[in-house]
Specification:
With 141 residues, the protein is mainly β. The chain has a single domain, classed as OB fold (Dihydrolipoamide Acetyltransferase, E2P), CATH 2.40.50.140. It contains two helices and eight strands. Strands 1-3-4-6-5 form a five-stranded mixed beta barrel. A hairpin with a 4-residue loop joins strand 7 and strand 8. The longest helix is centred in the middle third of the chain and has 10 residues, at 55-64. The two termini are 19 Å apart.
């Protein structure tokens, strides 16, 4: 089974590009995910994890996720390789997002969150479908 559940803060706004073959939208961003334990006398450390979201989920992330915002992502780990123009082989490990959630509290949320909720209600985005979630529902993390 290949399943990843992350909660962290965006290190910058999502970056959008389109595939050359069929013009599919892909959004890329990095999450700073705090490590669970802190050694005595040290500051909390974080891992910086690259996330990729495709098509409608990518559009959702690029439109509503902003630098510094806390979000939750559910997806799978993927590794890939390619050769550049100089013949150098490159390796990448990233999380392919299948679901994305707002994770900031209401008072910490940005104006973009408020605009989103005024337009669509409190929703989460899913790579396969979207569903509504009321303020009284429990989050899965």
């Amino acid at each position: 089974m290949n399943k990843v559940i992350l909660m962290g803060r965006l290190t910058k706004d999502p970056e959008v590009r389109y595939t050359q073959t069929n013009n599919t939208l892909v959004a890329s961003f990095s999450l700073a995910v705090n490590r669970r334990f802190v050694r005595q006398g040290e500051e909390r450390q974080a891992d910086f994890i690259n996330i990729v979201a495709w098509s409608k989920l990518g559009e959702f992330c690029s439109k509503y996720f902003k630098k510094g915002q806390q979000v939750g992502v559910i997806g799978r780990i993927q590794t890939r390789t390619w050769d550049d123009d100089q013949g150098q082989k490159h390796y990448v490990t990233e999380v392919v997002a299948e679901e994305a959630y707002f994770a900031d509290s209401k008072r910490d949320g940005s104006q973009a969150d408020a605009n989103f909720e005024n337009t669509f209600g409190a929703q989460v985005a899913n790579a396969n479908s979207e569903f509504e979630m009321s303020a009284t529902d429990d989050l899965p993390f």
